[in-house]
Design a protein that fits this description.
Length: 344
């Protein structure tokens, strides 16, 4: 996206700040900003490849790379042993998509076009999948205390088994989407501007940049938290989702402003489903391979916040129409949760 090109200057600035030992706070800020244009480049390169591969392969590419930045950041956090931060980023991405992104989309689209209508059938499918994904995330948390009291080692096993079922469900949802209707890539792609080799090269370079910036960000988090008085909860739930997925957020708001609210809702809700059913279970298995086992037991407040976000988003989506006031309501709930997690 052209608007993000100027921010690429922060990539070498972040590296320079780290080399010169400028302090954790400048490194944290610069690396966080640098992730924004790099994530946008990953999205652009994926779209270019999708334009050449056709709707089916393109849809799979978008599904795979849609949350690549968040996944890479989370893997860096696991490697550093910041498991609470990683879990907070999972719930933060879900909350951010359902409240912040969806809220901004409905606000902008409704303000420009009044009442916007969309497919109730598709909204119902997404709402059902959202509820099921939240149930999957909640089961290990709800049953962990009872199980841990008698079989402490079983909590990790339960998380692995639930993660496996979540991946299977995600796979089935992708198959259903591709068979039932054209995937999102068919609606958002444009004629290819880059050659396949150019797109692959930019994708590889941007991914490598995200890996490097994620390492800098994660290593600067703990000392920065102490200096700023912030918590891992706040950084994971608010900061990381914003910098890791801002390009996709922008697209959702842009298409809502163009009165394509169906696509906007699919981007917002679909991204939440990817985080819950794909990224979270992948991280569970990856953490085991990395020697830093992570379970799916979340802080009760995180779980409550996710459920609240899902309920209000479902209520708004199920009637098949929306307006700018409902967008403002979602943003208000997001602001309230942000304030609460600031003090946790």
């Amino acid at each position: 996206m052209p608007w993000s090109r100027a921010l690429l200057i922060t990539v070498p600035m972040a590296v320079l700040a780290a080399v010169l030992n400028a302090g954790p706070i400048p490194v944290l800020i610069l690396s966080a900003i640098a992730l924004i244009p790099l994530a946008a480049l990953i999205g652009e390169a994926t779209e270019e490849l999708a334009a050449r591969t056709g709707p089916v392969v393109g849809g799979l590419l978008n599904a795979t790379m849609g949350n690549a930045a968040e996944l890479i950041i989370a893997l860096a956090g696991i490697r550093a042993g910041l498991l609470d931060l990683v879990k907070a980023s999972i719930t933060g991405c879900i909350i951010g998509n359902l409240l912040l992104v969806m809220g901004l989309s409905l606000l902008v689209g409704g303000w420009r076009h009044g009442v916007q209508r969309f497919s109730r059938e598709r909204a119902g499918v997404l709402a059902t999948m959202t509820v099921i994904s939240f149930i999957a995330l909640g089961i290990p948390t709800l049953f962990s205390r009872t199980i841990a009291a008698h079989h402490p080692e079983a909590v990790g096993t339960m998380s692995l088994e639930v993660a496996g079922l979540m991946l299977a469900l995600y796979g089935l949802s992708v198959v259903y989407t591709l068979r039932a209707r054209q995937p999102l890539s068919a609606h958002v792609t444009h004629p290819a501007r880059w050659s396949p080799s150019q797109a692959l090269g930019i994708l590889a370079a941007a991914t490598a940049g995200v890996v490097a910036m994620s390492e800098l960000l994660v290593h600067a988090v703990e000392p920065s938290l102490k200096a700023l008085g912030l918590t891992e909860f706040f950084v994971g739930i608010i900061l990381i989702p914003l910098v890791g997925n801002v390009a996709e957020h922008f697209v959702a708001v842009q298409v809502a402003a163009e009165d394509r609210i169906d696509l906007s809702l699919e981007i917002a809700v679909g991204s939440s489903l990817q985080i819950a059913l794909l990224v979270a279970p992948v991280l569970v298995f990856a953490s085991l391979a990395m020697g830093q086992p992570m379970d799916l037991v979340f802080h009760p407040l995180e779980l409550v916040a996710v459920v609240m976000a899902g309920i209000i988003a479902a209520f708004i989506a199920l009637d098949g129409e929306t307006n700018w006031l409902e967008g403002a309501q979602l943003l208000a709930v997001y602001g309230m949760l942000g304030i609460a997690f600031f003090f946790v």
